[in-house]
């Protein structure tokens, strides 16, 4: 493989046989590809080995699951190049991002990282248009200039130690089309991780956010991010984000409520007390 970009791409994976190939294909030209597997039992490892056998600059590691942030930090620490790109197994570079990478990597020393847009694949629509994307996240970082916050249980991100800019063009394509039955289970799991993280850090009930965050979440995705351009599929995507927001805030509220007022069946307790008093 011709490796022209001074870039380490790092991926964490578990049973990603159906998605990982397209991700790796989009990384052609990277000098270093770090893949950390946490125990795949499908064809993921054989797929990776097939790329290694064809000369791709992949270094494969096996590591017991450390949590999202811990696993990605482990992978980041293994990178060799001056720039490191965090990419998930179900993501891939679009053509515009590939074309923009040389300029991003040539940034002056005052820039330590780049925030990259991500465009999801919507069932019944396809990838959102280039100007309709999710929030930009820090994905491209100079080696040694940022670390993951290991206290984050979900939606983990790199904490940079310098100036970060938004990439002017290009995006990651996110392809994991799962039906709503499965998507709600995913949002439920992610909201649990987020709520537990915040409560463990001392977060009390956020009544204002419980009421207003879900509709604001929807409006941000649907109007500001432009999902309205994608018809009913965009509406569903924005509503799913609002559901995640509601579940997170509701779980925070209930976890705090259970601390101050544990659930007790007062009616049943009173009935038992009355029966006890009637005993001779």
TrEMBL record:
Residues 8-128 form the Glycosyltransferase 2-like domain. SUPFAM superfamilies: Nucleotide-diphospho-sugar transferases (SSF53448). Pfam families: Glycos_transf_2. The keyword Transferase applies. One of its GO terms (molecular function) is transferase activity. Keywords: Transferase. Belongs to the glycosyltransferase 2 family. WaaE/KdtX subfamily. PANTHER family: GLYCOSYLTRANSFERASE, POLY-BETA-1,6-N-ACETYL-D-GLUCOSAMINE SYNTHASE. This is Glycosyltransferase involved in cell wall biosynthesis. It comes from Aminobacter aganoensis.
């Amino acid at each position: 493989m011709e490796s022209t970009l001074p870039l380490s791409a790092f991926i964490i994976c578990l049973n990603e046989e159906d998605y990982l190939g397209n991700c790796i294909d989009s990384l052609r030209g990277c000098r270093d590809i770090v893949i950390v597997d946490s125990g795949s039992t499908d064809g993921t490892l054989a797929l990776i080995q097939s790329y290694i056998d064809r000369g791709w600059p992949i270094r494969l590691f096996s590591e017991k699951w450390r949590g999202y942030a811990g696993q990605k930090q482990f992978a980041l620490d293994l990178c060799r190049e001056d720039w490191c790109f965090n990419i998930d197994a179900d993501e891939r570079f679009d053509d515009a991002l590939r074309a923009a990478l040389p300029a991003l990597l040539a940034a002056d020393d005052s820039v330590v990282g780049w925030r990259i847009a991500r465009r999801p694949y919507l069932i019944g629509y396809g990838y959102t248009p280039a100007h309709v994307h999710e929030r930009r996240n820090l994905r491209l970082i100079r080696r040694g200039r940022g670390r993951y916050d290991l206290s984050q249980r979900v939606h983990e991100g790199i904490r940079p130690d310098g100036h970060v800019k938004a990439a002017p063009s290009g995006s990651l394509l996110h392809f994991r089309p799962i039906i709503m039955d499965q998507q709600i289970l995913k949002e439920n799991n992610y909201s649990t991780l987020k709520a537990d993280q915040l409560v463990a850090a001392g977060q009390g009930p956020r009544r204002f956010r419980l009421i207003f965050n879900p509709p604001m979440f929807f409006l941000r995705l649907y109007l500001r991010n432009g999902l309205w351009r994608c018809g009913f599929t965009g509406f569903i995507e924005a509503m799913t984000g609002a559901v995640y927001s509601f579940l997170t805030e509701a779980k925070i509220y209930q976890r705090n409520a259970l601390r101050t007022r544990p659930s007790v069946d007062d009616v049943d307790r009173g009935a038992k007390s009355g029966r006890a008093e009637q005993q001779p």
